[in-house]
Amino acid sequence: MVKDDLKHLSDRESIHISPQIYRWRWLKDPRPLMAAWKRSMSTYRASLSHLERTAHQPRQNGLHEVILSKIEKVNPNIRLLQLTISNRGSLGFLPGQWLDVFIPGLTKAGGFTITSTPRDADYQSPRDGYVELAIQDSPKNAPAAWLWRPSSEILGQKLLIRVGGSFVWPPPGIEAEEVKRLVLVAGGVGINPLISIFSHIYREAAINPEHIRFLYTSRGTLQTIDEILFYSRIRQLMSAHPSPNRTLELYLTGLSNASHVGEINGSPTKDVSVRTRRISHEDLTTALGPVKERKEVVTYVCGPAKMTDEFVNVLKSAEGMMEDRVLCEKWW
Hints:
Elements lengths: L1 H12 L5 H5 L7 H17 L2 H4 L10 E12 L2 E8 L12 E5 L7 E4 L16 E7 L5 H6 L3 H4 L3 E7 L16 E7 L3 H13 L7 E9 L11 H10 L5 E8 L4 H8 L6 E4 L5 H7 L9 E6 L2 H13 L8 E4 L3
Parallel strand pairs: 7-8, 7-11, 8-9, 9-10, 11-12
Antiparallel strand pairs: 1-2, 1-6, 2-5, 3-4, 3-6
């Protein structure tokens, strides 16, 4: 049965599975087979284009013309791009969605998450509407590599974009007023959709959760803490709208020298804490709040695939937590 199932999957999805895997069907322990299957699926998904990976996702029908109007380098690996919407137009989207980005000369679109808010995309004279993207330096990804060309080569270029995605605020099927506690969990560039959601709630949303816990993990190998993607923006939003019920927990890994640790440990405030370790399972369940109140909790998780799978499992299995209120984004 296992051989037949794997053969069917291989034929349908064009996944290469070695003959050795088939012999594992005789083993009593299925874990090696499952591990090999996951590796094959991972390899297969990595070979797909953005449009192929997201074919099942909702997306708008229309294309919008934008102009690459601003480039800002955040750190050695990330740059922020501002795409101005042409002809004083506006772009409708929900916080957390992404864009198909069609670049001149490339046959396939790239996929990049919107990091700005819906209000930013509205034309408000004299300011044009825009969308912001955070692009990681990825030489093997043709669209990302094009967007990392020297600024002088690409500023002013016209692109086409299309909105898509279902990892959004408010959560699908749930009214915003039904969410009393919001837990955001980000790993690395997985912060991109969450900063859009977080900024929208702070700046624009008419109905906000009473409690917000933001858990953000990043590798602490940069020169200063402000080089951590969107750290400064989060601090600014929290400073402008202080609340004891809204906190940021920053978890830094990979720190290699004591001076970084000392500098970082000196930065916390009442609403911001910095820890030099990974996010633990206990951190996640603590963020959910009292068990009796978890029917009013919604969590968003976005980060590397392995981290996302692990954390989603922990959150869904937490006592009192409803599985449909644990949302994740993992299309890349």
